[in-house]
Amino acid sequence: LSQARAGIISTVEVLKVMEAFVNEPNYTVWSDLSCNLGILSTLLSHTDFYEEIQVFVKDVFSPIGERLGWDPKPGEGHLDALLRGLVLGKLGKAGHKATLEEARRRFKDHVEGKHILSADLRSPVYVTILKHGDSTTLDTMLKLHKQADMQEEKNRIERVLGAISQPELIQKVLTFALSEEVRPQDTVSVIGGVAGSSKQGRKAAWKFVRDNWEELYNRYQGGFLISRLIKV
C-alpha cells in the first residue's frame, strides 16, 4: 500500500495481494487489511468505483466471516472475539446481505430485552443497522444512549452514530454531538464518527466544525482534542 500511495506500483497490485489473505486466521493481519481497505474506500468514495470496492470488501471478508460465525466457539481466545467483531462490522457496513439480516434480528432482540448483545458484538451490530437504517433506527440508538448506565456503552454508541447515511440524519447526529447528552471530551468522537463514515458525512462534519468553530475552540482552548478534531 505504501508503494501504491507513493505512485511506484498500481493500486491493482495491492488489491491482488489482499485477495491472497482470504484464509488468514490472524486478527492483527485482518486489522491491517481492514485499515488499508478503509483508506482505499475513502479515496474511492469520490469516484464511480465506490460500490465496486464494497463488493471487493464483501468478497475478501465473507470466507472468514462464515468461518467465525456470530457466536463464540469453545476454546476461543480474546483475539478471536476481536476478529469476529472486526469482520462482522466490515461485512455489515459493506452491505453483506446475510450479515445485515442477522444484525437486524439480533438488534431487535437486544432492544426488546429478549437477548442482550454481548459487548464484543454491539459495535458491529450498531454500525451495521445504522449504516442501512432510517430515522427510527437513529431514534432507537439515541434512546439506548440515554438509557445506558455505563459510560462505556454511551461511548460505544457515540462512536458509531455517524454511520447513518441520510443527510438530515447526519445533521441530527452533529447537533447531538454538541448537546448536553454528550460529555465535552466525547464530542470529538461523535463528529469524527460522522467524518469517517462517508463522503457526505465528511463534508457535513467539516461545515459543522466551521459553523461552530468559536464554540469548539473555546471549549478545547487549543488542547489535543482540537488538533484531533482537525485531523479527523
Automatic annotation (TrEMBL):
One Pfam entry name: ERAP1_C
Biological process per Gene Ontology, one example term: peptide catabolic process
TM region(s), chain numbering: none
GO cellular component, one term: extracellular space
Keyword flag Transferase: no
Residues covered by the ERAP1-like C-terminal domain: 3-231
Keywords: Aminopeptidase, Hydrolase, Protease
GO MF, one example: zinc ion binding
Keyword Hydrolase: yes
InterPro entries: ERAP1-like_C_dom, Peptidase_M1_aminopeptidases
Family (UniProt): Belongs to the peptidase M1 family.
Name used for this protein in its record: PSA aminopeptidase
Source organism of this protein record: Crypturellus soui
